[in-house]
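Long-time lurker, first post. I've been practising inverse folding by hand and with some scripts of my own, and I keep getting stuck on stretches where the structure tokens seem ambiguous. Below is the full token string for one chain I'm working on. Before anyone asks, I'm not after the true native sequence, just a reasonable design that respects the backbone. If someone could post their per-position residues I'd love to compare against what I wrote down in my notebook.
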């Protein structure tokens, strides 16, 4: 498997080096990165599987939630909220600072909090302002090809961490009370889902 950005000539060159000089890519150019599964077809060509990609966020409305981080076999609580939202965020290779800003606005204004009549007419910005953000690369797990998921569509930590940090900063600028997990550590997440209400958002 190889991931390239179809918009960038240097990425196409790398793909050409990978496959050989006779590479021809058929299909529409896209505004997102695409994952390309390269598989020999009768030893005469290649099969290309194209998948649009975007940042993914699993948003859960909760009564309470917390996250603990494990470092050197020591467990410590690093984030905790009362009523609000837990946001698990998966970053892919094409995400940018603009994506983080758009996602922050979506989370802040998403109307999934109850009003006085028990109807989801309000946003977290209208109510508790509590948000727990946790990086979750496994949102990009692809199990379509077998029993072992592939993580190729997930951005590497050195790319994902700055974007998660920017998302947290953008939410704070909007007025959110943000708590977070700890990057590059094993984490234990506890929550009480209220409803239950769970949405998958892709930007």
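-- Answer (accepted) --
I ran through it position by position. Result:
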């Amino acid at each position: 498997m190889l991931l390239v950005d179809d918009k960038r000539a240097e990425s196409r060159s790398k793909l050409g080096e990978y496959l050989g000089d006779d590479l021809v890519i058929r299909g529409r150019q896209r505004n997102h990165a695409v994952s390309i599964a390269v598989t020999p077809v009768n030893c005469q060509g290649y099969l290309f599987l194209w998948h649009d990609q975007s940042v993914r966020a699993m948003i859960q409305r909760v009564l309470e939630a917390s996250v603990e981080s494990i470092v050197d076999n020591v467990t410590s609580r690093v984030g905790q909220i009362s009523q609000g939202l837990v946001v698990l965020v998966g970053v892919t290779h094409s995400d940018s600072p603009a994506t983080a800003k758009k996602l922050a606005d979506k989370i802040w204004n998403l109307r999934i909090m109850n009003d006085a009549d028990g109807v989801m007419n309000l946003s977290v910005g209208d109510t508790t302002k509590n948000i727990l953000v946790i990086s979750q690369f496994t949102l990009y797990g692809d199990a379509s090809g077998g029993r072992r998921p592939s993580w190729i569509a997930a951005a590497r930590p050195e790319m994902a961490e700055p974007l998660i940090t920017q998302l947290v900063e953008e939410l704070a600028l909007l007025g959110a009370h943000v708590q977070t997990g700890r990057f590059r550590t094993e984490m234990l997440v506890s929550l009480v889902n209220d409803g239950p209400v769970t949405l998958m958002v892709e930007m």
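A couple of notes from the structure itself: The first helix runs from residue 9 to 19. Residues 34 and 52 are 6 Å apart (CA to CA). Happy to go over any region you disagree with.
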